[in-house]
Design brief:
single chain, Neuraminidase, 57 strands, mainly beta, Transferase(Phosphotransferase), domain 1, four-stranded antiparallel sheet
Amino acid sequence: MGEVYRARDLRLRRDVAIKILPASFASDHDRLRRFEREATAAAALNHPSILAVYQMGTYERAPYLVSELLEGETLREAIMRGPMTIHRVTDYGTQIARGLAAAHEKGIVHRDLKPENLFVTKDGRVKILDFGLAKLTQPQLGSEANAPTLEGATDAGVVMGTVGYMAPEQVRGQVADHRADLFALGAILYETLAGKRVFQKPTSVETMTAILKEDPPGISQVSPTTPPALQKVVHRCLEKNPERRFQSASDLAFALEALSDSGGSAAVAVSGQAKPGVLNWRWAIAIIAVILVAAWILTQLNSPTRPPRVLATTQLTRDSRRKFNVVTDGSRLYFGEGGAAERIAQVSVSGGETLPIPTPFANVDLLDISPDHTQLLVISYVGTEANRPLWSLPLPSGAPRHLADMVSSDATYSPDGQRLVFVNGSDLYEANADGTNPHKLVTISGTPFALAFSPEGSRIRLTVTQSGADSLWEIRADGSDLHAVLQPGQSPARACCGGWSSDGRYFLFTSQTSSGSNVWVMREPAGLFRWRSSVPVQLTTGPLAINAWTVSPDGKKLFVAAAQGRAELVRYDPKSGQSVPFLSGISAGELDYSRDGQWVTYISYPDGTLWRSRADGSDRLQLSYAPVFAGLPRWSPDGTQIAFIATQTGRPWKIFLMPAQGGTPQELLSETSDEADPSWSPDGKKLAFGRFWKSRPGGIHVVDLATRQVSLIPGSEKLFSPRWSPDGQYLAALNTESTRLVLFNWKTLTWFDWVTEPGAFGFPNWSQDGKYLYYDIAFTEHQTFRRVKVGQNHSELVADLKGLLRYSAAPAFAWSGLAPNGSALFDRDLSTDEIYALDLELP
């Protein structure tokens, strides 16, 4: 794109190249943006395999850039003369991969790598040209304004690149990362070896179809002399699944460099002191043995194991209730089920009717099944306290047995069934299976959960949440040698909730992204190859989000609880006693009205984006976009701003301020704690909010918006969910268990108990006149919506919610709200949430 001229830099006395975008093209915004992006990307890089850019400017309305002068030919011209030698291919490929590695380290992805954009100089150096389609990867929420950027996070669905060299994800119009460049380089290497394109069809559409569906023809069919090791490198670059390609350009450069050093093949040289024609038979046997062992090792290294895969899927349940924590004894599945209250249910591994398992608990979570399949390990609760009583529940029925005085947030059995490992806060404990003799193993920096023993019982893997990000860790059963399972930067970035196959050969886990949760698997190192690291492979690909999973004892089936979230916004009609669609029943919640009642802000489900509209639903404006996940928006008293919380994968929940007319959100505070429930003071000068440390309430804080000074309200250390009264006299809040409503008097600066309920409070909201506080009683079999009057300590029923299935998603679990006229608002759950059996192949 543009015209290139040879020129002389008189000041520095060197020849240069000047690339000019003609004035007729300068008015084309897209061409001008690509031209500027090319200059910005190349100028940000300093590498011998990337064209050096010296200057950019405009002369007589014609943009230009000055770069180093290259003499030679494009790689396309070199290919047209026929296939190249193995040495030249590996040399060129190594140089290109090293250049890409330098770009990728800066976060720059080329996205249009092809022979025309590669230049071979007369002295055999390869230069990468034309970063016109490059992009900067991994944008960050609230990033610094002066951070290096390339404009252009490509919209989903826009195909970027050149047909024939695009990776499958580019053909689909999906967001492409650095591994798309590795696919393109694989196509280029194939072409240099074979003398023809790997995907060459009569039309562009047919070519793109071949990229998506056809395997590349074997190089040996065209070039029989190509070493098998080099063929494997090229075909690995051309894997359709990015997870099966090289995961970095540096790794690819290393592989090509190794082939170049060895001439593309392995050789064994033997010398000795024996007379010609005579060889000591002992040495002969030893040498033959060494050769055989070396050949076997090379075979193991160079023959990739067939990746695990899902062969077929069967739906087992059809009741749409929320499901979690699936375990199996081989004949039946046991799982947690959510609704008005959480319970345990069961179903046959072949499907059928879902049956509840009776328990005396108001709410119960399933944690594990004993190795002999006679007990379920469960946890009971009423409110939101993190640590709760542990129980063992006999199968198929029986009275639960309390496990001593143990309280925990998660627990699991050892493989022999003799011990328990459980979590209390940040501490990991061990006890006998009956709960006796508990003792601490280790303190974790973060919040541990999802414990899993290795099949032989020597190791424990767990998920740790730190600063809002989940990651997998491993520890020995005695509490020693705590270390990360996936190294920083290793895909996938956010791993959680893992466990082994029964034979210990594979480790499975989930990875949560803004688009959903999927199951990943990696082969465990074994035998002579314990030093080899296994590359995780994505096993499921949506569109359903995987909430929980378990593998059958024979390893042939993967049972998953998978959901696709959808809500319906409803209003409770007191005359009919029914909930009717509100705002056309949009899939949204966490709705808040402006003080004048003319505008609303809300969160759409399941994508978690922030919206603003008029009270009748017109004049809608989207305020946030993926990968940002937003929640709990609140209008400022003057109607000019919206406070809300938001997160991205791997980051804590933070409070942001957004102009009501749209714009750039401003992060309120820079601390690393999780923040929630922003509540405006009536004058709009302050915000009260809850702060969480390691998932535990850290008190209610107040921030002065002018100075950003933060103060803790005394006595609020175990409180959360603040709500400022409209007259400014009080601040309502909930205790840790969500069973007690308390009130803070700003005049006396004291807290006092207001109301206690048998269930858990949810989403307090003041009436506009400040006389009442409305709330719902959730996490109980009979849910209600109630209100309490200031000055009284007993509540009154507003709406009976029995039979209303509530939508539940972070951060607003079972949301409820209030319209200006006092109407109660809720989310009806229309999600699909079922258990599926996936036929699994674990080679």
